[in-house]
Every structure is written in C-alpha cells, then in structure tokens.
Amino acid sequence: MGSGGSKKKPPVNTNQSAGGDKGQTTPKADNSNTTGDSKGQTTPTSQPKADNSNTTGDSKGQTTPTSQPKADNSDATKLPPIKQEVSVPPSSPPAHTTGGRPLPPIKQDKAESQDPKGDNSQGGGEKSERSKEEQAVLKPDPDSKTGEDSSPVEKSEKVESKTGEDNSPAEKSEKVERETEEKKGSDSKERNQQENIENKGETEASTNKQDSVKMPEIEDRVIPPEPEDQRNFDDALSSACLLIKPDSLLKNLNVQNVTKLLLQRSLPSNFKLHDLLTKLTHVQELDLSYNNMGPQAFRSVCLAMCNNTTILSLNLSDNKTDTDTSECIGQMLRMNQTLAYLDISNNNLGIDYFSKCVGPALKTNTSIQTLRAKSLGMRDLRVLMEGLTENTSLTEIDFSMNSFSHPAGVTEGFANILKRDDCGLRSMALGNCELNEASIEILRDGLQNNTSMTELNLNGNAFGSLKTLLKVVVTAASHPSITNLSVDNVQIQDTTCTTDDAASCVRPDVISNLQFLSLSSSKINDTFISSIATLLKGRQLPLIDIDLSANDELTPGCLKFVADMTSTDGSPSVLRKLKYSLMKNTNGLTDQLTNGQFPSLHYLNVRKSKLTDIHLLPDLYKVQGSLTTLILDGQKIANTDVMETLLASSTGGSLTTLSVGACSLSATDIAPLCQALRKGLKLHMLKVSSNRLEDKGVTDLVEAVLSNKTHPLAVLDVSSNTMTDQGALSLAKLFTTKSHTSQLHSLNVSSNDLGKVGLVTLVSVIGGKSPLRTLYLQNQTRGVDEGDMDEVFKTLAKSLGFKVEMKDEEIVQSCSDRPNLPEGLVVKLSPLGGSPGKLGCNLDSPRIQTDYAKEKLPNLSFADSQVISAFLKGTGSDVCVWSGEEWKMITGSNKPTTDTPSWLQVASSRDLLVYLCNLPGNTTRQKVEALLEMEADCTLEEVCLMKDPVTRSINGVGWALLGDKESVTKALDFFHAGMATIFGQAFLISPVKVKVDDEANTESQAKAREDQEERLKQQRQDDRDHRRLIQRTTDETWKRHAYRLAHPAYADGRIW
C-alpha cells in the first residue's frame, strides 16, 4: 500500500468543476462496529436513514454525536452532552498517499453493535443538533494545529507578517544566528542547573520522564462543522416536498460551495432532478446509499463513473444489486483514476465474481484510498488479494461480514502487505469473517513490525483461546501507531492464558498509541487483564476508552490492572470512558471507581450490571468530581431510596447526562430527580425511557424544569412510557411558559399513549422561535385515524410556515415557498397506524417523516439513475447516452444466464418500457400483468421478471412492455398515487428514458419479435400446464371428498 504520509486529514478540495465461475451467498446482517465506522471516527457524517442512532459513548472516541434523534437499540443512552468538544484520536487519515488524491471525508456506517444480551428496551434519546453556541465551541482555534490547514508557504508568510517587518535575506540570516546563540545559552544554563539537582533513583526517574515525554498527547481535538453553505443546502434539499415550489427550494442559497450531494430518496414528483444537478458544479462527494435501486440502476452509475474526473467519494451501499454488477464495478475501478472513496457494502455481489472482477482493476488503480465492501456475500478472495498486494494507494479496507472460505490465505496476503516498508494501510476491518486462530496469528505476525496501521477490527471471529486474544491486544498496545482495537463478540473456547504466552509480542522500544480498546463479550477474565498490565509494566498506555461489557468472568478487581496500565508512578490514569455493562459480578465496583484511581473518568456505563453499592457513585460527580455522563439503564432502583442518594449531592457537580431507562421508575421514584432539578442540577440530557411514568411523573418533571428561569436541558427522552395527552400538554409548557427560557431542542415521546390532542399540542410548539428541532412521535399505543392525522398535519404545516391551498377539495401542489425551517429539523410521525391523508402525503420529506413512504416508495428510480449518470458523464442533458455494449451490460443482455428480453435493444420499444423494482420475492408474472391491466388500466404487451443468475429466483426487478405511451403515463400515475403494491409491499415503477448511440438494426428488431413470440408460446404452454395441474388437483380432491362421504369410517386416508 502507499506510504502513510501526514496524519492530518485535509478538507475536500473544492476547486474542481463537475462536469471464472460466479457464486452467491446471502450477505450477513451487520451487527459489528467496524473499526473505521464508529471506533474513534469523528468525521461529520451524512444523515443516516435508518432509525438507529449512535448512543452517548457508543462511538469510540466520540463525545458529541451528530444531530439526528433515533430509537435506542444499543447499550448506552442516546443523550449527547451539550457544548462538549468532539474528541478525535491523534492519528487522523493522511492528507495524501502515494499516487493518490486528497482523501475525502470518511463516512460512518449506521450499523451498531448488537446487544449481546438482547436488550429490547425502546426509547433512547436523540443525537443533538448543534446550536449556535455549540458550533462556536466546535470551531477550531486558528492557532491550533488541528484547525490549521495552511501550506508551509502560507505558514511562513504568517510568521513573517507577525514581525511587522519586511526583512531582507541578510537580516533574516542574522536574526536566525542571534536566536540560535540565545537558545544555546539558555539550554546550557538549564543543563547546569539540572546537574546540581540531587535526585535519588535518578535512572528510574529519567526513564519515567522519557516515557512521559514520548507518550502521545491525549487531548480533545475539534473538527470544524460543515461549511455554512453546505449545511444550508442539505437542510433545503431534505425539506423538499410536494407543497414547495421547485424554484424556491434553493432560493438565496450559495450552491457554488456545495461539494456533497446526499440523495437517499428521490425528489418529489413536482421537482426535476436534472434542474437540481445543473446548479451543482462542484460536487465531489456523491451518496446514493439506501435506495434499493436494483442492479440495472447500480450498473448505470458505475459505468457513468468510468470517465468521470470530479467525484472523489461514491457511496452505493444498500442498493439490492446482484452478482453480474461486479463486472461494472471492476470496469469503473480500472478506468477511473480520481475516485478516492468507494462504499459498496450490503450488496450481494457473489462468492468469487467480485474478487475476479475487482482484483485485476486494483493492480492498476492509483487513486482509490478507501474501499468499504461489507456483507457482499463473497467467500473466495484469492484474485482480490493479488490485486491488493500490488495496489499502492489503499489506506482503509473494510471486508467485514464476509465469510472467507480460505481465511489463512486472506490474512497471509494482508500480513505481507503490512510487512512492506512502504505500507500505507491504516485501517482494516475484518469483523465476522470466520477467521480462525491460525489465520489471526498470521495477521498478528504481520502487525509485529508494522508502523502504518491505526485501526483494527477483528470482531466476531474465532480466536479459539484467550492466548491468541492476549497476543493480539499486546501487539496492538506495543504498536507505534494503532489507536483503535476492536475485538468484540469473539469466539473463545480456552480461557487460560499467562504472560509467557504473549511475552514475545512486547516491543519495549516502542511507545504505545492505543487509545480505544473494545473487548465486549469476549470471555475475558481478571487473569487476562492482569497479564496485559504485567507485560506492559513500566509504560503508560494512552488508553482513554475501554469497553469490558458482557464478560461474565470479569470482576471489578480487574479495574486495578486497568488503572495500572493507564497510569505511572508520576501521573494518574488517563482513562475517560468506561463501559462495564451487562456484567454479573459487580461486587466492589463502586469502591474501585471512587478510590481515586480514575481522576479523569467522565463517562460511565453500567447498564444492566446489577450494582449493589450504587449509592457510592455520587463521589464521582460531586463538586470536585469529573464524571459528566452516567448510564444506569436497567438497574433495579424502583421503590428504593437510590435516586435520592444519587442526586443528593449532585447540585453544583459535574454531572450533565443521566440515563435511567428501563428501571421501572414511577412518579414517586423520580421525585428526588425533580427535587434536584429544582435545586439547580444542570442536566443537559436526560433519558427516562422504558419506565412506568404516567402523566403525573412527566408533569412533575416539567414543573421542576420550569422552576428555573432558564435551564440547560437540551435533550429529553420520555419514550416507551404510559403518558397520555395530559403529559403532552405539560411538555408543551416548556416552550409556552413566558417566565422560562427553554433550551430543549430534542424531544422523544414515541411509544406512549398519545392521541389527537397530545399530537396536535406538541407539533404546535415546533417552528418559529422555538428551540425545538427534533420531535419523535411515532409508535403511539392509541390508534390515530385519518381525520385526526389531518388535523395534526394542518397544525404542523401552520407552525412551520407552509402555505396550503385547496382547489376542488384537493391540495394544490407547489403552492408554498420554502419556509424558514429550523436547522436540522426532524419530525417523525411514522408509523402512527393511520393513513397520512392528503396533507400528510404532501408534507412528507426527510424532515417530516410520515407513513406515505409505505404507500409510495421514496427511493431513487431507474429514471433518476439515468439522470445522475448523464450528470456524471457531463453531457448537460437529462437523457443519458450509452453505447450498445454499455446498454447490454446495464440490462444484462451480454450474459447468457439472464432472461433479458431482446426488445430492450429496440429503440421504439424502449419508449414504451417501464422498469419495476422492489418486487416481493414471491411475485409472479400473472400478478404483475393483472395489476397493470386491471388496476392501472394499461394496455400490456409483455412482462419479464428478472431472475438471479445463480439462484434463478426472482430478484425483485422486471420490465414491462406497454402497448402505447398513454399506458406508460397511466402506469406512472398509478405509482405516484401510492397504489403500486403487491402482497402488501410497495414497489416502484419508473420510465426508461435512455438513448443508445448505435441503435438496433432491422435484424435486431426481427430477432426481438422472434424472441417475444417464442416467450409468448412458452408462457401459453406454462399457463396450460398450470391449468391442467389445478384441474387435476381439484378432481382428485372431489373424488376423495366423495369417497369420505360414502365411507364414514374413512378419515384422512385411514380406517378407524
């Protein structure tokens, strides 16, 4: 791989103009945190689509999450602290690699670590949206190293400008000599003073001092927020709905500075995608993930990228493509020499075909730096590893969730890469890849003398013994640059280990850089932790975040060894975040935490760990304490005095985030919390979800906050309780009480018992001058009918400033200018059980999420993919032009294993085509024909459903040839009306607007007609055979029925 280069990550360049045998397995579900996804990664990410947000402290090295609220599925609360700096590991991606371009911002995946104990609690607050004050905190110091992006020349000019002189070369030389002499004199004086100091144990003290100097600095580094123009564009694009006038969407916005385009759903039908794309001339980052576009659309984008020179980052994950698409991916990587980031995760690309197509392309590609290929169903990587061995540009690789058939061969290839002097590989994720003990040892051996790696993920693999796990951890802790190591949910059979097992892995001449270590559910014990401490004795690990959750054999005594690892005789422990959740043995845990071993601890997660001495925890966050975040979810503290003890001395302390979800708390139980809030407890985030709070509990909580003239509470999660409309009325007072200034910007009341009154009340307090920006209302126990939902949407539209016009009892589309919505606004009203009604359909957008998406799929269509492809080709037209060979690759006509109809090659037929996508697996041709002919009233010529080239099962896409253009219009109107559903599942109908530059000749047209006639004959024969089968089965059934009536002793073929 290419050289590591500088460890500072530059901003995306904004100066460019846009212009063998195949096999297949079903990809695994991703339930492991990949190294580059959440462990230590703090680069701002695109808005996730799934409702699964990272919780406070779940992201390794991340203290302030991004802004979307999501349902709680993880082992920590989702209540991010306010006004905290984002912690970034000292090792950031390099600015350049050999032969490569600047690396674009790295995306974070939305997948989370699966709860090893099966937590089903709901709720979990929201990712907070940064206020103006928070953005000021996150703004980089212009004099700091982190916020400085100046070139050496610019830095030199800045230094010279500070002197206020325009020095000549001679004057500069004299000045340098004078400063050098002064420095020498100063150094000499200091040395003389040091020699006169008598110090016992001089050698040991000198060694400790040297280690202290060499140890990497552990300090929170800040990342600047997205540029204002980019944020404004993202907010505007995500607010597009049927009510908004297309020409007002980007009004008063500066799109010349927009470099990122996120399209995780299609634009409303009254917008034209081509018009939007023509205004974006500097796009470098394109995200089309989570659209389920289908193989043909996926291939189109890949082929359009072949000669593109402006896009640096492309995300095509989760798009339901197939094995044959690997050929287009390989061609893109072979021809494109500017793409630096590619994510194709969660697409079924076959057992070995992806390897055969992409491997050779990587040998010659010099631009790709990040390749994310999780859960592709690939097993045979032999050809791919050959390409990786010769590649010199890749720095980040993620192959998680792929079951390797030859794991030793894969890890041997990576080990050879890691042993190279010019290795530039920094991040590697091989989680859940069925690596065994032998293959892991091969990979560890490659790491032994490597100097480039910073992140390693080996989650979910078969380590076999704690001996192997110990060697991996010690190797990482003795590595000069590895900052993140994740080995969660590994398979261990032998739980014995000693220091002798890993003694050879220690590199005494290397200062550790390990800062994030995750060992959740890995069957480790106290001996394992003590062995690490013994092997690394005498050095201080810069470990600031450790996860020991779900290890039944661990005892709190292990924390003494953790303290030893993270401290020295002359300096205290640097540990800041400790996750000790889902643990059986917790006796003495609080004693270990409060005895002064961890003076820097600010995050503690003891979720479902059954603490017996929980009353001692206040020592961590009282006036002189450091703890800011406390996660107590699942603790048995109901009907006890624990809450009173916990919060008695909290006023004036350091605690800002408290999570007590799933604790069965009632209004009586949270009375001490309310009292503490009245006395001045400055919580920024509070999670009380999944409890037994009724209206009284919520009302008491609100009144406690209102007793303060102003309060910093910014995120509140009361989801999954039994609150009714009365509780919602109380919550609204936080924003309507004139004597109180609220800072609450995120509110989660999902999964309660709200009705029309409660929903209307809460949506009425969002918008305008209200600080509320994220409001979750979904999954209410009480059913809400369409009439009530219409009232809710009317109130919401009025609160947010939408103009609604009616004509003939129908809502007029494109009747409203884009209102000035709060930055980062999200109102989630799906699912609520009732139809969204006409107004809900017109308001539906990524900002206002309704149930309309269940009726009409919002995903990008095949037609959208063609417009995007034309944009990537730089044609300036909304119709993409393909060569005949490219069109055959897109449709699959070049493969003998596909059932692609030949009339796709005929120009006159393409004008009458519609593309069907997201069809259920049990769809039949007869069902689609009946739907289009009888319900959509189309004249139909033929329907062809595509089959997977390997399994030969319906792959969810198809083509329909209609009789005339009017039928095409009817089919599209049928889809836009939200009526395109089969077996209760919505599917997508899209026109086919393409141009093939070498149009089919007469011979091709004749062949197409011949093939069509042959298919019709076969279909008629299949229909006749099917009818005969039904008739024969019916006759036999009646005969058995008649026999049973004539012979009462006969029952189900037996004589009684």
Automatic annotation (TrEMBL):
PANTHER family of this UniProt entry? RAN GTPASE-ACTIVATING PROTEIN 1 (PTHR24113:SF12)
| Gene Ontology BP, a term | nucleocytoplasmic transport
Q: What protein name does the entry list? A: Ribonuclease inhibitor
InterPro entries from the UniProt entry: Leu-rich_rpt, LRR_dom_sf, RanGap
- What Gene3D superfamilies does the record tag this protein with? Ribonuclease Inhibitor
Q: Which GO terms describe its cellular component?
A: cytosol; nucleus; perinuclear region of cytoplasm
Listed A to Z, the keywords are: GTPase activation, Leucine-rich repeat, Repeat
**Which residue intervals are annotated with compositional bias (Basic residues) in the record?**
1-10
- Cite the residue spans of the region called Disordered: 1-218, 1000-1026
User: For bias kind Polar residues, which ranges apply?
Assistant: 12-76
GO terms (molecular function) for this protein are: GTPase activator activity; small GTPase binding
Q: Where is the composition biased (Basic and acidic residues)?
A: 107-118, 126-203, 1006-1026
